[in-house]
Write a structure and sequence with these properties.
By secondary structure, the protein is an alpha+beta fold. It has 4 helices and 9 strands.
């Protein structure tokens, strides 16, 4: 009888250790919106890893302009807009225009190899990329959880875009 009690006690303790320890933190994905990226770079911009999932209307093969959003539960944490055009777009116009699709706060030119503007709450990059959708690819990143006037994240946004944008362009099959 004591052997059964010992087994039951051990099982109860093991169950409590697993269930009483609190929530297990979720890992950040190794790819965001179809682009492989070091989770440590994503961690610079995404604080909550609870119930991370994506919503995407991007079609790389058909070069269809569309959004891709990384959500934590129902809350967007990273919002991307993939866009193909036949001519280069004025990024400052996109960043400061009245539309909400590409608007970022306090945009500044970046010293990245691609044409890039970094804001306090997002970024816009553009590169030549000949596909059936056009000759230029533009990627907008918006961070809805960052307050527009909070300049503390500009460096982290730039670090992320220095890696994410070229990695994304490599996935597009540019000619």
């Amino acid at each position: 009888m004591s052997a059964i009690r010992t087994v039951l006690l051990s099982l109860a303790l093991a169950t409590c250790t697993v269930s009483c320890a609190g929530p297990v933190p979720h890992e950040l994905p190794g790819a965001v919106c179809g682009t492989r990226i070091d989770p440590d770079l994503t961690r610079l911009l995404v604080k909550s890893t609870d119930d991370l999932h994506e919503y995407s209307r991007v079609d790389r093969a058909e070069t269809v302009t569309g959004p891709c959003v990384l959500l934590s539960g129902h809350e967007p944490v990273l919002e991307f807009r993939f866009s193909w055009d036949h001519s280069a777009t004025d990024l400052m116009y996109l960043a400061t225009g009245s539309g909400s699709t590409s608007q970022i706060t306090s945009p500044r030119n970046s010293e990245t190899p691609a044409k890039t503007l970094i804001g306090t709450d997002g970024a816009i990059s553009q590169a030549p990329c000949k596909t059936k959708g056009g000759d230029y690819f533009t990627l907008t990143l918006q961070l809805p959880k960052i307050k527009p006037g909070d300049g503390a994240h500009r460096g982290d946004i730039e670090k992320f875009m220095r890696v994410y944008f070229p990695a994304t362009v490599r996935t597009l099959g540019c000619r």
